[in-house]
Amino acid sequence: MRAWRALLRRRELLDRRILGGRIYVGSALWALTAFGFGLLVWGVGGFVHRDGVDPHWLLLTLAASSSLMAFRRTHPGLVLLLSTGVTAVDAVLGPSTMVVFNYGDAFYAVCAWGRRRLAYGTLAAVVVGGVAVTAVMVYLLVIGEIDYPLVVLQMIGVYVLVFGSPVTSGVTVREYRNRMALERERTQQVRRMAELDRRNAIADERGRVARELHDVIANHLSAIAVQSTAALSMREPDPERVRRILTVVRDSSLHGLSEMREMIRVLRDADDTPDLEAVTPRLADADRLYAAAREAGLEVRVERRGTPRPLPGPTDAAAYRVLQESLTNALRYAGPKRVEVEVEFVPRRRGARLRLTARNRVAPAAAGGAGRADPVWAAEHGAGAGLTGMRERVDLLGGVFAAGPAPEDPGEWRVCAEFPLPEDDDAAGPEPAARTAGRVGAAAEDEEAT
Fold first, then answer.
1. Could you give the count of Cα atoms lying within 13 Å of 249 in the half-sphere of its Cβ?
2. Are 291 and 189 contained in the same domain?
3. What are the distances in angstroms from CA 78 to CA 110, 117, 140, 290?
4. Antiparallel, parallel or unpaired: β 299-305 and 338-346
5. How many domains does the chain have?
6. 185 and 56 part of one domain
7. Is residue 83 part of a domain?
8. Alpha-carbon span 33 to 67, nearest angstrom
9. Would 180 be classed as within a structural domain?
10. Is 259 or 405 the better-scoring residue by pLDDT?
11. For residues 362 and 407, what is the distance between their CA atoms, to the nearest angstrom?
């Protein structure tokens, strides 16, 4: 690990720019190395002697070509152009080995760091040049200007070594670097998508927990609030009525505490996604809702239509919560305290679905006057957290939800929810006995504790 970190630090040092960003540290070191090695090669006679030419002139072309290597990454096209001129002068004076090597490195730099069009144009030019050199050498061999085929192979090998190999290496490095950049970008996109999915999952889970908490707390606390208000409004003591009120308050507290405990247990025991439906009552438990609402002073009329059938777990739980919230709102705002509930199982021939409807008159204080629906009242009740929760539950199941004043009677508040049902009854399994047993057991424990 330490070796890798040291290597990374060295790489960062070599990629650092100096002299106002014109030169990379790595390129400057490469230029110095090329010049030093070129001096060594010149010292051992690594150049072609020409009559009447002082070998010291070759040191100038060596210094020029090595200096150009310092700009190989920042200005590769210009370096190749100037290197071509320096190499031509060196060929007239010598040539020398290191200048030719630096010229090949200029081709590598263009293909590795130059613009795409310049890089692949250079590759095409080298390929065309290789074909031309091969054709000329073969032609000279055929007409007898070259005596041995080995000479032809040697010249082709030199061309490949000086031009072909650097260009091929540069293009390979360029493509590898492009693939790595694409992979990094793809990895970043995957991370962004994963983070977005995580945030959406958290938001969805928070919304689900918020709906459950609201439905559990609001229903029971509303009953407690209504009964407490009734007790406080009594002008003369009535022990029997006070006893009935306290009984309703006690039962609502016990039921709310029981459901809250079950929800907390599920949230604590869940590994990833808590199964809140495991502690949510079902539509079959709606009679308990009706009884609690009646005890709280609300007149509840229930009408059932159609043939009941097994419901999917999410639909069953959502239907119960819609009824619970509708009764809660009726208990708070209805005037007189009366609500009509319709539970209809629409048959398959008409499109299998479950339709829930709750109707109640609006108290004059809330409606802005007897029989008159005030816009402020409608907006206030239409933006409540309970209505939002019901709408979200129905929408998540692909159903249709509507709540507001009835078109034909603005003084009536109507809640209507439709849930699509599967065509096959086997798709909706019955409620596990453990869920009902758990809820009944928790309620019994709270009853004993009091």
1. 14
2. no
3. 9, 15, 34, 88
4. parallel
5. 2
6. yes
7. yes
8. 11
9. yes
10. 405
11. 14
| Residues recorded for the chain | 450
Q: Within a 10 A sphere around the Cβ of 439, how many other Cβ atoms?
A: 20
What confidence tier does 373 reach under pLDDT thresholds 50, 70, 90? very low
Helix (H) or strand (E) holding 186: helix 165-232
**What is the per-residue pLDDT for 304?**
92
Domain extent, residue 60, equals: 15-193
> What is the Cα–Cα distance from 223 to 200, expressed in whole angstroms?
34
Q: Report the CATH number at residue 315.
A: 3.30.565.10
Would you say 360 and 330 are in contact if contact means Cβ atoms under 8 Å apart?
yes
Given 170, 193, 216, the domain boundary residue is 193
| CA separation for the pair 364, 373 (Å, rounded) | 9
Residue 258 lies in a domain: no
Q: Are 341 and 301 in contact (CB under 8 A)?
A: yes
Structure-token match 């190989």, residue found = 72
Which amino acid, 322? V
Cβ neighbour number for residue 76 with a 10 Å cutoff: 24
Task: Give the other-Cβ count within 10 Å of 211's Cβ.
Answer: 22
Q: What is the pLDDT of residues 91-141, one digit of tens each?
A: 998 888 899 999 999 999 999 999 999 999 999 999 999 999 999 989 888
| Final residue of a structural domain among 174, 193, 212 | 193
Q: Against a cut of 0.70, is the pTM above it?
A: no
Give a yes or no: residue 235 inside a domain. Answer: no
